[in-house]
Write a structure and sequence with these properties.
By secondary structure, this protein is α+β, with helices and mostly antiparallel strands. The protein folds into 3 domains: 3-59, no CATH class; 64-92, no CATH class; 115-288, Sandwich (Jelly Rolls). It has helices at residues 3-14, 23-30, 35-41, 46-52, 55-61, 65-74, 77-80, 85-92, 217-220, 250-257; strands at 98-99, 104-108, 115-120, 135-138, 148-151, 157-164, 174-182, 195-201, 204-211, 234-235, 241-248, 263-270, 279-288. The strands form 2 sheets. Strands 1, 2, 3, 4, 5, 7, 10, 11 and 13 form a 9-stranded antiparallel β-sheet that branches. It has a 4-stranded antiparallel β-sheet with strand order 6-12-8-9, with no helix packed on it. A hairpin with a 2-residue loop joins strand 8 and strand 9 (204-211). Helix 2 (23-30) packs across helix 4. It starts with a helix and ends in a 5-residue tail after the last strand. This is F-box domain-containing protein. Residues 15-61 form the F-box domain.
Length: 293
């Protein structure tokens, strides 16, 4: 065998492939990616799976120590009993959410680990222009919270929720969503396309949109003029309806996170002053935008 060929074979034999690296080295590299990428790495080979599923990797994806302690204490028992960091992470990704106190639920987005929030109706500002009988607080079989707010009767309808800007994951684009339904007895005044949402950071409006909670083409024809076409809601798998209220870019969440005093506000308003009833408010959610957005 020629010496050059033997030398080439020896060189190839001495090469170290990625899969030959110690598990600790692979884990350090995978920990620099994301939960989604770590899960993909686990499918490459047994060596990658051992590294990608290790506590050293998933410890990096969990929230900070104090925040994690709070979430785990409030989480269901099945989450508290997690035997690995990956199990603990996946438990906190349950959209049912762990109570964070004061009528709010928080969970992690599975792909990125970004924080998600649901503010219950009790955490929202609701109009009381017609006195204490404008809203009725009642349990609901589909709700994650003990009570929802059912609109009995009002003329002025303006709902908003606030969250400290520092609570959002910096550098992550977010969208606010109104989660709602309508009462079994029917609704009134929710089908006109004169409804508006806005999302603001520190009082600065980042997005404003026209929408309609209960679209009705016959009602829409009563309104004339141009402008933005009203957004329409979608029916969720959990039985609630939701409509996107507006978005915040990643740059906005990064700059806002540096100011502990700023708040993010998501609001919904019906511009017309006419009787309204039958709206059931479950929550306002703040969730990361889909990757393709």
């Amino acid at each position: 065998m020629p010496a050059a060929h033997e030398s080439e074979m020896g060189r190839r034999h001495q090469e170290t492939r990625v899969g030959d690296l110690p598990e600790e080295c692979l884990a350090q590299v995978i920990a620099l990616t994301s939960p989604r990428d770590a899960s993909r790495c686990a499918a490459v080979s047994p060596a990658f799976r051992a590294a990608a599923d290790s506590d050293d990797v998933w410890r990096r994806f969990l929230p900070a120590r104090l925040e994690l302690d709070h979430l785990v204490l409030q989480a269901p028992r099945r989450q508290q009993a997690a035997t690995s960091r990956k199990d603990a992470y996946l438990g906190l990704c349950d959209a049912a959410g762990a109570f964070a106190g004061g009528g709010m639920k928080v969970w992690l987005e599975k792909a990125t680990g970004a924080r998600c929030y649901a503010l219950s109706a009790r955490r929202l500002s609701l109009p009381w222009d017609d006195g204490e009988f404008s809203w009725r607080w009642t349990p609901h079989p589909l709700s994650r919270f003990p009570e929802v707010a059912e609109l009995v009767d009002c003329t002025c309808l303006d709902i908003y929720g606030t969250l400290p800007a520092a609570a959002l994951t910096p550098g992550t684009p977010y969208a606010a969503h109104l989660v709602y339904g309508t009462s079994e007895g029917g609704h009134r005044g929710l089908s006109y396309p004169d409804q508006e949402t806005a999302v603001a950071v520190g009082g600065r409006v980042a997005a404003r949109h026209a929408l309609c909670l209960r679209p009705d083409d016959a009602e829409a024809r009563k309104f004339r003029g141009g402008g933005e076409e009203a957004r329409r809601p979608r029916l969720r798998e959990d039985g609630w309806w939701e409509v996107e209220m507006g978005r915040l870019g990643g740059a906005a969440t990064t700059s806002a996170a540096g100011d502990g005093e700023e708040e993010v506000t998501a609001s919904f308003e019906v511009l017309g002053w006419y009787p309204k009833r039958g709206l059931v408010v479950e929550a306002i959610e703040f969730r990361p935008c889909p990757p393709s957005s």
